Amino acid sequence: SRTVRRNADGVVTVGGLDVGALAEEFGTPAYFLDEDDFRARCRAWKDAFGPGADVFYAGKAFLSRAVVRWLAEEGLNLDVCSGGELATALSAGMPAERIALHGNNKSTEEITRAVEAGVGRIVLDSFQEIVRVAHIAERLGKRQRVQIRVTVGVEAHTHEFIATAHEDQKFGIALAGGQAAEAVRRALKLDGLELTGIHSHIGSQIFDMAGFEVSARRVVQLLTEVRDEHGIELPEIDLGGGLGIAYTSDDDPREPHEIAASLGDIVTRECAAAGLAVPRLSVEPGRAIVGPTAFTLYEVGTVKELTGLRTYVSVDGGMSDNIRTALYDAEYSVALVSRSSDAEPMLSRVVGKHCESGDIVVRDAFLPADVAPGDLLAVPATGAYCRSMASNYNHALRPPVVAVADGAARVIVRRETEEDLLRLDVG
Ligand code: LLP
């Protein structure tokens, strides 16, 4: 991994800092995020797509005010999917016109706040919402720029819970049966809306570009139908996020420039065939930007050898700081980082401290046979959907996020305290 490195003496460092010293200073469990890597990935995406396209970072992967400032500085836009994410974005100074609001059931309050703030885009997800957003905008005397999210009917090859473009799920308006075309018809009639384009997001942790190609083709097909019926060419296409990252050495992710070339080619080709001007393209990577930039540092508490089976290595966190293994059968790697060891590798399962047996961080791992209480373990690639999906299960205190840059570490999200927990308990 790029974030967990061992120097010539075998000491693991992150951003030039010794992991042991970091654990001492910030405690465990904790997420350590490499700010330079985050910014480099932002630039790689922006450069790959060029000035003719927009990159919206998907805040659901991980959002904090520091992250918002980095995005603003690196010239990225931001996709938010709730009032909470919108509030974080605005409070850290992201210009509203660079924010897009998503969600399949946005509340009246969320929509109102977004329209009032002047967000650059609201992605409409249902027939009800077309009317709802239009009415709110009209009441506020505004014309809101919107896209319509369509369901293109692609079976993306990923876990069922994170695939979003097949027919039988809750997101978007189906292209099938002319529903999306009807949504366009209705949106074009409403004064409060300026329909700028069509949106499609097919799922997450996807490696195969074929699904994106089908999606792009079907979205361009809809733009063609819109032109033929209404005589207008919608100027934007958003193909969503979902690009996979390497969690283990088996994964082989595409680089941003390959993704940009492949999406750019297909959109250009399809538009040329249909005689359409090429619309402005946007994408919404979350995981691909933040996922690889962080690792979680844990301390080993107990080691249980189950003869003939495997060794259970319990760490001081678990499903409350990384639910992905339990929820999606996600695979992670793990490394002993507080010292080097020549001991034989042993089949291990890294588990947390929560009160259920599904509380697994890394299902199958080889750790040195002398792993012992007090050792530090690092689990790489936990930047996306770990802190953002962390919970207080068993009244766990959610870990801090520590940003490392230029050989210095600073907390960007602090560790929760018992006071934080008790503050909400007002019974
Ligand atoms: N755009 C939209 C409309 C989305 O719904 C999502 C993710 C993204 C962009 C960003 O997708 P990414 O590039 O990060 O794959 N909790 C799951 C992932 C859920 C993704 C939800 N939507 C996980 O931990 O794998």
UniProtKB/TrEMBL annotation:
Residues the record lists as binding pyridoxal 5'-phosphate: G242, E284, P285, G286, R287, Y385
The name this protein goes by in its record: Diaminopimelate decarboxylase
Catalytic reactions of this protein: meso-2,6-diaminopimelate + H(+) = L-lysine + CO2
UniProt keyword list: Amino-acid biosynthesis, Decarboxylase, Lyase, Lysine biosynthesis, Pyridoxal phosphate
NCBIfam families named among the record's database cross-references: lysA
Family: Belongs to the Orn/Lys/Arg decarboxylase class-II family. LysA subfamily.
Described function: Specifically catalyzes the decarboxylation of meso-diaminopimelate (meso-DAP) to L-lysine.
Orn/DAP/Arg decarboxylase 2 C-terminal domain: residues covered: 296-383
Source taxon at top rank: Bacteria
UniProt EC number: 4.1.1.20
Transmembrane stretches, start-end: none
Enzyme class, first EC level, given as a word: lyase
Record pathway: Amino-acid biosynthesis; L-lysine biosynthesis via DAP pathway; L-lysine from DL-2,6-diaminopimelate: step 1/1
